[in-house]
Amino acid sequence: xxxxxxxxxxxxxxxxxxxxxxxxxxxxxxxxxxxxxxxxxxxxxxxxxxxxxxxxxxxxxxxxxxxxxxxxxxxxxxxxxxxxxxxxxxxxxxxxxxxxxxxxxxxxxxxxxxxxxxxxxxxxxxxxxxxxxxxxxxxxxxxxxxxxxxxxxxxxxxxxxxxxxxxxxxxxxxxxxxxxxxxxxxxxxxxxxxxxxxxxxxxxxxxxxxxxxxxxxxxxxxxxxxxxxxxxxxxxxxxxxxxxx
Length: 245
What we know:
The chain has helices at about 55-70, 225-230, and strands at about 25, 35, 45-55, 95-100, 105-110, 120, 125-130, 140-145, 150-160, 170-180, 185-190, 200-205, 210-220. It is mainly beta. Mean pLDDT is about 75; it is low at about 1-20, about 55-70, about 75-90 and about 130-135. It comes from Streptomyces lateritius.
């Protein structure tokens, strides 16, 4: 959890982000960036959503493994390095966060850990709507008020696994951006990194009054402090905890 002046945790209500377009843009290694400004989507509320689910292959693999155990009972005594992500085996809690740097030089983080939910209508103009601990269909959502885009220098959206077994390779995670206008923007966390605990997913930067979204998808084996060093944010980090549900 990060500590700095001027940021107070507080929950706010859900917000509308405009009508979602039926089509989408997928950011990949070959096409890593898109301009919100050129799409006419640099105003209103930008909704950034994290969703995840168990990979189908893991369910099938678990069924095949059960059959193998019947034929070879001795395998019961051989522990697995990383077990499949099922509700009965590994409960993965993916969290969505955002480091921000404003035009006036102030920096901070928005994340469930520590209760830093931000604010939509006052600095940093970034707000986390809540904490989904179970991978529900709605996932987790961060809103960015682009009507104050001139106050935003850069944003780094990241995903981390809170206090559970590293299992990015066992989940199918996706971050989707819903601008106020134009197609949604999708980024799949599809690179296998079985021991990683955090992933820098995307950046939104104000480059000469143009808002540019860039795919990152960089996995690290530490937590937010390691992402901070990777992108040169310069925040002070300490161990944080969630309140029990």
